[in-house]
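Morning, I've got a small favour to ask if you have a moment. It would help a lot if you went through both lines with me. I owe you a coffee for this, so here goes:
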Amino acid sequence: EDCQLPTTLTELYSLYTIHTIKRSITIHFENLDPDDITDLGQLKDPIYCLLRSLSKMAFQGLKNEQLGFTIDQLPPECTGGRGTKPELLGFMSASKFFSRSGRALTYQFTHLTVQEFLAAWHAATQLSVKEQNELIQEKWNDTRFRMMLLF
């Protein structure tokens, strides 16, 4: 095989995303073959549905300056039934925190740049060209969106 290193940040994070999905498939989806995943544009359900939902949440979170999410804020496709561990494809981790109301569990993307990449993937694949142009014009000088727009 001709293995080449990624030359752009987008290529690097695309590869990271593919390999993270493959690892998750190996652990959580016995009926899927991780070797079938070679490109984000060729994902099939249920993986495509999960990634689409997580990327939309990443996008909305970025717009709302939100880094942590409760179980109720996770997409229904990711939470399964009550008492089951959410399927987050390896892109999010859970943290317990204590407040005056007691213990709570919050989920966050493993790194802000992962959230920004997934938000960019959402914008590129789910928004119309008109919506993309409006987003770029509206957020071009917003530092919170700088990395997302670079992807």
About this structure: Helices lie at 9-28, 47-63, 76-79, 112-126, 129-139, 146-150. Strands lie at 68-69, 92-99, 102-109.
